[in-house]
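>> Question from a student workshop board

For tomorrow's exercise we were told to take the sequence and the ligand below, predict the bound structure, and bring the output to class. My setup keeps failing. Could a helper post the expected result so I can at least see what it should look like? The ligand is flavin mononucleotide.
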Amino acid sequence: MAQSVVKAPLQDPSNMDAERAIGLEMRYALRRYVTGVTVVTTLDEHGSLVGLTANSFTSVSLEPPLVLVCLGLKSRSYAHCVRQGRYTINVLTDEQGEIAQQFATRGGTRDDVCHWRLNERGYPVLTASLAHFECALVNSVVAGDHAILIGEVEAISLGEDTRPLVFHDGQLFGLAASASAH
Ligand SMILES: Cc1cc2nc3c(=O)[nH]c(=O)nc-3n(C[C@H](O)[C@H](O)[C@H](O)COP(=O)(O)O)c2cc1C
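>> Workshop helper replied:
Here is what the output should look like for this input. Compare the format with yours to find the bug.
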């Protein structure tokens, strides 16, 4: 499976000011880096699901268990994650490419584009994901146009051990069976 997401047209950096050119080069260079794909979910003040697709998920520390995700300051999810103080990082399978695209769309409701539930600890989890990290926000550092949210992992649940969704060169893929064989 390959689903195109954000193929911006190539531009000539020599026609731009230095700051814009480096920004563009950074986008191109980052496309060469392969990541998994997560959806960060939390609740708004009415209890509705909010969230966004994020590939900036990274493990930080094992003791204590800390993970980070970088959220755009203008994203709806950033404000809700900070206000709520807790959120779930759902690691997507290669069957969840459509969900990744829906949660990468600005605007619109999230409740009706996926199956999800509030678990026994009150965290919103997406059904059939590879793994759920339930995070309590312990630190938020604004860095440029994003904020680094550091969360302490309060609980983890694992779904079926199936193939992950990956992001490379602006496209969502499933891994070939041989690449994920144990
Ligand atoms: C593969 C992929 C990875 C993304 N990773 C991030 C990310 O790490 N942080 C971020 O702020 N936005 C990321 N985005 C963009 C958001 O998903 C997008 O801006 C979303 O519409 C924000 O939704 P919200 O405003 O409802 O929170 C990513 C998009 C895609 C397609």
